Amino acid sequence: MTHRRQAVRGLAAALAALVALTAAGCSSKAKTGDGKQTGAGGVQTGEGVTDKTITLGALTDMTGVYATLGKSVTQAQQLYVKQVNAAGGICGRQLALTVRDHGYDPQKALAAYTELEPKVVGYTQFIGSPFVAAVKPQVDTKDKGLVLPQAWSASLLGSPYIRVLGATYDVETINAVDFLLKEKGLKSGDKLGHVYFEGDYGENALKGSKYAAEKAGVTVVEQKIKPTDNDMSAQVSALKQAGVKAVVISAGPRQAASLVGVAAATGLKVPVVGNNSAFAPQLLGTQAGPALEKMYWFASPSLPIGADTPTAKKLVADYQAAYPGDSLDNGIVAGWTAAGVFGEALKKACADKDLTREGVDKALLSLKAHDAGFGMTHDLGDPKAPSSRESVIIQPDKSVPGGMRTVRQPFVAEAAKSYTP
């Protein structure tokens, strides 16, 4: 049994225990029948929906490894809810977003899910692939509330209720390696370093780099790390000794900054490319900032927040007005996109007069060409596939809005086209 499977099973067992405890404590409030009823406007409703309110959940990380991402995602979604409500809401009801910060802690994440499960129609975000994977059996067989995770592991595919927005980590990494091959000098016979988090995220990304490397005749040199590992000196030393010509990093922003900063300082001046969650513009203000601008790129499931599109420009203006002084990053794009997708599903479910969880899930599957305004079109009709296989390659640049500029427009590598997640 792999480490990832052991971790997921352990988390699933913890969830089961938490669910049992919650059920025991709330037995006096058990639902009768299937919990559905007909509400205002002749619309069928269920968990999280009343005649006046549609309650959504957000399971985020605002104090842990992805604190920067979690803050931006959450604030963008709060902004979306505020604007929708100001325009009259959805289906004659106001949206409410209930937020829980799990700090990227497994027990806190699962406890927060268990707490919110009976109170919300679904989740506009759930940060942490291992945590989402742990609740997946519960979601698929019992809860059936729509989950739009801020996670892109291929292990989350196959569920009609958990929908990955954008390319999965393995596909994204194949696209990232293609960038190294086509534009950064990596070639057949070379060694490619890959620093990655243990667990769903990193191991799914590693699968992609190995697939792309095999196609290109490249050898992957692995360096597995934990989310608590912040100093990449040992990993840089090992990669330098191995003679790698480029590096992929599938970790958090702190690890990416350390890797690039240490590599530049010790003479390992090779291109480094990360997955979408391995960068935060705030890093440009650190000692690693100059090195990041020179030798770091990352793949993304959308154009950056500073993109020259009407949606991006309006979002920047609205976000800065709502949160003056806060920096711009791609967490804003991810949060806004997910909230918008959930909103479109709610509108379609309203038109079908079915705001139950089943109705919202069914409505989401009807969205075959959703344009979020950031360069990608999402097909949400096939639960077995990511909504897109495209990636954008972005380079840190403190001179542009959001600290990021696009160096390669949306594309799908040839290797990614034939790959099965």
Strand-helix topology:
Layout: H1 3-25, E1 37-38, E2 44-45, E3 53-60, H2 67-86, E4 94-101, H3 106-116, E5 122-126, H4 129-143, E6 146-147, H5 169-183, E7 191-197, H6 200-216, E8 219-225, H7 233-242, E9 246-250, H8 253-266, E10 272-274, H9 289-295, E11 296-300, H10 310-322, H11 330-351, H12 357-365, E12 370-371, E13 377-378, E14 391-396, E15 404-411, H13 414-418
Parallel strand pairs: 3-4, 3-5, 5-6, 7-8, 7-9, 9-10, 10-11
Antiparallel strand pairs: 1-2, 11-14, 12-13, 14-15
Helix pairs in contact: 1-3, 1-4, 2-11, 3-4, 5-6, 7-8, 8-9, 11-12
Describe this structure as you would to a colleague.
With 421 residues, the protein is an alpha/beta fold. The chain folds into two domains: 40-166 and 309-388, Rossmann fold (3-Layer(aba) Sandwich), CATH 3.40.50.2300; 169-300 and 392-418, Response regulator (Rossmann fold, 3-Layer(aba) Sandwich). It is built from 13 helices and 15 strands. It has a seven-stranded mixed sheet with strand order 8-7-9-10-11-14-15, sandwiched between helices. Helix 8 (253-266) links the parallel strand 9 (246-250) and strand 10 (272-274). Helix 1 packs across helix 4 (129-143), helix 2 (67-86) crosses helix 11 and helix 5 (169-183) runs parallel beside helix 6 (200-216).
